[in-house]
Design brief:
Arc Repressor Mutant, subunit A; 309 residues; alpha+beta; D-Maltodextrin-Binding Protein, domain 2; WH_DNA-bd_sf; single chain; 3-stranded antiparallel sheet; 40% helix
């Protein structure tokens, strides 16, 4: 018998991983803890390998567990769709979609996108997670991710959504304390706040462009963080200059809590993209979400342009 023949065992395993413990999964599935433990043991016996590492403090997946988890999620998703089609002749989408996004993009633009998608497809449920480590989220079984920045990995398929324009900003109080910059090279003398994360580029280097001219600066940030909201707060307080997306600081600029610094000089835009696992079958509801996101983002982002010098 194949380990994939018994969907109940696979459901038990996925529930344990999603819940973080056997006891929590048992409550979720309304089974006794010994019953769920036996189901896990049966699946491990059939697979010939331990699927979970357990100690007194935490539970984690083994390599075999990672592989079986991804396969189990795909099979259960397919079974769910088949059952849904048998129950109803209608074509309405239903079921769960697990989405992740980079933190600040997710809390604003992506949250509005998801709300629009659910309003269009009310039988769908979406779980949104935030992470600036996108490959980790794919490995954890997410269906799709919407990212600001770049990601290149053979494990994922990437579809461009558009471009996020950025600008250099600072507080009026900071600019009063320093000599007014007249060209990009003068900015190296300012304190800087920067965003960490490989998909966002080198936080200690920024290149500004104005027409055909460019200027590269080497920086020593006084504050390095994974969250754009942290940078925005620090800029408001006058801690330093930062490069931030224009949509993210629009209200601050209008309220004059921030000002553009050397507005004719701009950093290269970030690309926005939606990604999904390359080797995993895409359920219909996830495909619909990917297509919806592509169309939605075309209305809120600048069209993607080919990279230029």
């Amino acid at each position: 018998m194949s380990i994939y023949d018994n969907l109940d065992l696979l459901r038990a395993f996925v529930a344990i991983v999603d819940s973080g413990s056997i006891s929590a999964a048992a409550r979720k599935r309304r089974l006794s803890q010994p019953t769920l433990s036996r189901q896990l043991q049966a699946l491990e016996a059939q697979s010939g390998a331990a699927l979970l590492r357990r100690d007194t403090h935490r539970m984690s997946l083994t390599d075999a567990g990672q592989q079986i988890l991804a396969d189990a999620q795909t099979l259960l998703s397919l079974a769910e769709e088949c059952e849904s089609r048998l129950r109803s002749d209608q074509t309405a989408l239903s079921g769960q979609i697990r989405v992740f996004s980079t933190i600040d993009f997710g809390q604003t633009v992506v949250s509005r996108l998801i709300s629009s998608f659910i309003q269009t497809n009310p039988a769908v449920r979406v779980e949104l997670g935030y992470s600036n480590r996108p490959l980790h989220m794919i490995e954890e079984g997410c269906d799709a991710g919407i990212l600001a920045g770049t990601l290149s990995d053979e494990r994922v398929v990437s579809r461009p959504l558009g471009e996020i324009t950025r600008c250099v900003v600072g507080s009026p109080s900071l600019l009063k304390e320093h000599k007014k910059p007249r060209k990009p090279a003068h900015l190296a003398g300012f304190p800087w706040i920067a965003l960490s994360g490989s998909q966002f580029g080198n936080p200690r280097h920024v290149t500004l462009h104005s027409g055909s001219e460019s200027c590269s600066l080497e920086l020593e940030p006084v504050f390095l963080t994974e969250g754009g909201a942290s940078i925005r707060e620090a800029v408001r307080m006058g801690l330093g200059l930062a490069v931030l997306p224009e949509w993210f600081v629009e209200e601050d600029l209008l309220a004059q809590r921030m000002v553009r610094v050397l507005p004719k000089w701009r950093p290269k835009p970030w690309s926005a993209q939606i990604v999904y696992p390359a080797q995993r079958r895409m359920p219909l509801r996830v495909k619909a979400f990917v297509d919806f996101a592509t169309q939605y983002m075309a209305t809120v982002l600048k069209p993607h342009k080919a990279a230029s010098g």
